[in-house]
Specification:
Keywords: NAD, Oxidoreductase. The protein has 345 residues and is of the alpha/beta class. It folds into 2 domains: 115 residues, Rossmann fold (3-Layer(aba) Sandwich); 163 residues, Rossmann fold (3-Layer(aba) Sandwich). The protein is 46% helix and 15% strand. The chain is built from 13 helices and 12 strands. The structure holds nicotinamide-adenine-dinucleotide (NAD). Nicotinamide-adenine-dinucleotide (NAD) binds next to α4 and α5.
């Protein structure tokens, strides 16, 4: 997958086993979060870190950030985390001299970043009270909302989501903020989650209609917004989906990037690529790392996802290629162009 570097980190004393993938640093230091997961094998972890770090290259490039793509995975049960364990990981990050910058991802939180930050400067996503940018989720949700509006403009001829039937899968950090934007705009919102209490609480608080997780793919809806897991767009679900647009915050929505991107194109579903529209979070942590963090500017930068998404959907239509492919080509073109600029002193 064209990576620059894959680092294997191991520490006997704390039991730390981690991988750091640096995919491309043409635009700047490789920024991407650290995920902790009890992988079934080392091979599985390697595949994950390679895939995720490549995705960050494209995400950061399309967001207009001067940051490359990287990601780290820590192998094992999150219960293993201790101060020493996290600081040992921080030492490994520091050893790369700023080629890789870490942040939170699955099973890692802002207080973990504080421990990592005791050993390295190359960490971002710290709590607001510690001078960080705080929770990135509202920014991510805003970007998803912008991307959804762009996809709506393409599919329905108007960016307005008023009266559109939108199904949001997952009422977690991203889902709940997205629902607020949609309700405010007068959309007809249906929501689901595997945790019934959480689902009912959000439905009650927002006025959205709660539905069972199992029926989401069969709903009569205009827009499907995956905001839970990856790989929900696959051989089984594409046949069932009746929506005109897919736009959501979840990472890696297409189970098979090439195959399922093409199937969506053939079915006439407008797909807003996930790594393009869920970049608000990385825009937020990137701004924190690069210095002079300003929440208002972060939201302004995230708003641009609307124009970027529309441009990519137009390219996809003109060239009759899947939107995912159009997005990757656009990201690669920026990396190549800026790489040449950097050759001059
Ligand atoms: P979260 O854990 O807060 O929320 C996910 C929600 O999905 C949970 O409420 C969970 O119960 C629910 N869920 C899980 N499986 C489900 C299923 N089968 N059906 C319905 N609901 C299900 O996570 P989050 O931070 O909101 O992130 C959501 C997605 O967006 C993830 O894929 C994440 O990688 C991605 N993402 C998040 C951010 C961010 O800023 N938080 C940034 C970029 C991408």
């Amino acid at each position: 997958m064209d990576h620059e570097q894959l680092v294997i980190c191991h520490d006997e004393a704390t039991g730390l086993k981690a991988l750091i993938g640096i995919h491309n640093t043409t635009l700047g230091p490789a920024l991407g979060g650290t995920r902790m997961w009890p992988y079934a094998s080392e091979d599985e972890a390697i595949t994950d870190v390679l895939r995720l770090s490549r995705g960050m290259t494209f995400k950061n490039a399309l967001a207009g950030l001067n940051l490359g793509g990287g990601k780290a995975v820590i192998l094992g049960n999150p219960k293993l985390k201790s101060e020493a364990f996290l600081r040992r990981f921080g030492r490994f990050v520091e050893s790369l001299g700023g080629r890789y910058v870490t942040a939170e991802d699955v099973n890692m939180n802002t207080s973990d970043m504080e421990f990592i930050g005791m050993e390295t400067r190359h960490v971002t996503g710290l709590p607001e009270v510690k001078g960080g940018g705080g929770d990135p989720s509202p920014v991510t949700a805003y970007g998803v909302y912008m991307g959804m509006k762009a996809a709506a403009k393409k599919a329905f001829g108007t960016e307005s989501l008023k009266d559109k039937r939108i199904a949001v899968q997952g009422v977690g950090q991203v889902g709940k903020y997205l629902i607020d934007h949609l309700i405010k705009e007068g959309a007809n919102v249906m929501v689901t989650d595997i945790f019934e209490d959480k689902l009912q609480a959000i439905a009650k608080a927002t006025g959205a209609q709660a539905i069972a997780p199992s029926i989401i793919y069969d709903l009569d809806m205009d827009i499907y917004a995956p905001c839970a897991l990856g790989a929900t767009i696959n051989d089984d679900t594409i046949d069932r989906l009746k929506c005109a647009v897919i736009a959501g915050g979840a990472n890696n929505q297409l189970q098979d990037e090439a195959k399922h991107g093409k199937m969506l194109l053939e079915k006439g579903i407008t797909y807003a690529p996930d790594f393009l529209i869920n970049a608000g979070g990385v825009i937020n942590v990137g701004a924190e790392y690069l210095g002079g963090y300003n929440r208002e500017i972060v939201f302004q930068q995230t708003e641009k996802i609307f124009d970027t998404c529309l441009g990519i959907l137009n390219k996809a239509e003109n060239e009759q290629i899947p939107a995912q492919q159009a997005a990757i080509e656009t990201a690669k073109a920026r990396i190549e162009a800026i790489g040449k600029v950097k050759l001059s002193y």
